[in-house]
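Sharing in case it's useful to others searching the archive later.

Someone asked me privately for the predicted structure of DUF3592 domain-containing protein, so I'm posting the question and my answer publicly. Question first, with the sequence:
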Amino acid sequence: MRKMEIKRPVVLGVIAAIFGIIIYLSYNARNKLINHGRLTQGIIVGEDRTYRGYLVLEYEFNVEGKKFTNTRDLVGLVVMAGRDFQGKSFPILYDPQDPSLNDILITPKGFGSYNREFPDSLNWVKNYLK
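And my answer, the predicted structure tokens:
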């Protein structure tokens, strides 16, 4: 019985195609939020840590009476921010055609990544930046 040999260029091509699809989908989702996103308010309802110790915030928000929940890794915040942010309200940017596509805006960098101006009302968040 003869083993099937897989050529190295074929394997590298498949890996490159997979990464290309992932990058495209991420870029497309971000562009939907930049170009068509709407803002609403959401509340931090939980916190966790990644295996590297990064802060993960769980948030929820409502669109037309339907509740959505999501999580967001926040690398640039000190760990105690999770505890202090619980129950606080923050802007949520969501796609009106698919509200499950959303992001919470907390830091100046987060607002900037969607071409949004960081509001003065959130200046207190800057105390939690690393």
